[in-house]
Amino acid sequence: MPETIILAIESSCDDTSAAICIDGKIVSNLTANQKVHELYGGVVPELASREHTKNIIPVVAEAIKKANITTKDISAVAFTRGPGLMGSLLVGGMFAKSFAQALHVPLIDVHHMQAHVLAHFIDEPKPTFPFLCLTVSGGHTQIVLVKDYLEMEVIGATIDDAAGEAFDKTAKMLKLPYPGGPLIDKYAQLGNPKRFKFSEPQIENLDFSFSGFKTNVLYFLQKEIKNNPTFIDDNLNDICASVQHTIVSILMKKLKKAAEQTDIKEIAIAGGVSANSGLRQALLQSGEKYNWNTYIPQFQYCTDNAGMIAITAYHKYLQNKFCDIDIPILARMSM
Ligand code: KG4
Ligand code: ZN
User: Fold this and answer.
1) What is the pLDDT confidence band of residue 133, given thresholds at 50, 70 and 90?
2) Which of 74, 215, 265, 294 sees the fewest Cβ atoms within 10 Å?
């Protein structure tokens, strides 16, 4: 049987990524990160689009080269349809559409958040259905009930900020560069997580909220800086450890509640924030305590990457789920 070779492209935010998947195996996964946003403390959409246009051809060429294939071998081209920044999505989407048409191969549209979940099917061990996936990124915080590869239901979501945003915005208050999540993680490893107490929301259902926590950190810092102008520098590790501890606690309490309500013990985490060492550790500890089978993707498949787009596209390919060339790109898109 001929091999199924998929070229996948991800460009929903500030990473330009291309991957090649051969019969369900990711053989190359390359990402160009955009450093330009560090200066501005957040992603500047217009700059992100411009960087994507610069990066996309070299990244795709390198992914093809690294996979040791030629463009003639490609069976289908996949791309992130949404959600994300419109300009960024358009660069990857239009590139994929043109490429598929030039090669006379089918086109596959992929939902970015579904792809974060299906990153669990790149490597072993793979979860069994049904499983719960806490999907935590810069733009989303969701508990997803995953019934099958392409059948998912969001059973809890944030009503305001995403967990990644909570990390990045508190990092900004601490004068750390964007994206601050990984830096909070780094300093937190040296600090005392119980030193400062921050507020957690009281929400009955499976939804999340981070705005009260964020305001609490802001007022706390303002008060402390009034007494000691070097408060942040003097206590950075403990502040980061306490911030991380609170965000992880908010996430884990809801995940535990979801596991109890659904009686599911296959528990996964995905998305950029699943790279966080505190969250990874908390999931493993809960796994032991509650007898869960836990799943954490490799670091390269936690943050935005085309490998996860490719594996999702592979499962769509197996089910003959292709799209038309005129399919619209969507900045907002439900699961
Ligand atoms: O999934 P992702 O790469 O992009 C989106 O789809 O949003 O997630 C990016 C988010 C950012 O908010 C970033 O700060 C956060 O993931 N992040 C982390 C860590 N690594 C990435 N947050 C906390 N700890 C980390 N180690
Ligand atoms: Zn993402």
Assistant:
1) very high
2) 215
Whether residues 92 and 241 fall in one domain: no
Residue 271 belongs to some domain of the structure: yes
Question: In this structure, what DSSP letter does residue 208 have?
Answer: B
- Residues 80, 173 within the same domain: no
CA distance 55 to 46: 14
Same-domain check for residues 146 and 41: no
Of ligand 1's listed atoms, the one at least distance from the Cα of 278 is 24
The span from the CA of 126 to the CA of 208, in Å, is 27
Among the bound ligands, name the one nearest to the CA of residue 276: 1
Which band of pLDDT confidence, cut at 50, 70 and 90, is reported for residue 335?
Answer: confident
List the domain range (segments joined by +) for residue 204.
Answer: 128-296
Per-residue pLDDT band at 211 (split at 50, 70, 90): very high
* CA separation, residue 328 to residues 88, 145, 227, 260 (Å): 14, 27, 54, 39
Query: By C-alpha distance, which of 75, 74, 76, 87 is closest to 16?
Result: 87
Residue 182 C-alpha to ligand 1 middle, in angstroms? 7
Do 104 and 225 reside in the same domain of the chain? no
Could you tell me the CATH number of the domain that includes residue 165?
A: 3.30.420.40
Ligand 1 atom nearest residue 139's Cα:
7
Atom of ligand 1 nearest to the CA of 275: 26
What residues line ligand 1, using a CB cutoff of 6 Å? 13, 137-139, 164, 167-168, 179, 181-182, 185, 271-273, 275-276, 303-304
For residues 144 and 14, membership in a common domain is answered with no
> How far apart (Å, rounded) are the C-alpha atoms in residues 122 and 133?
15
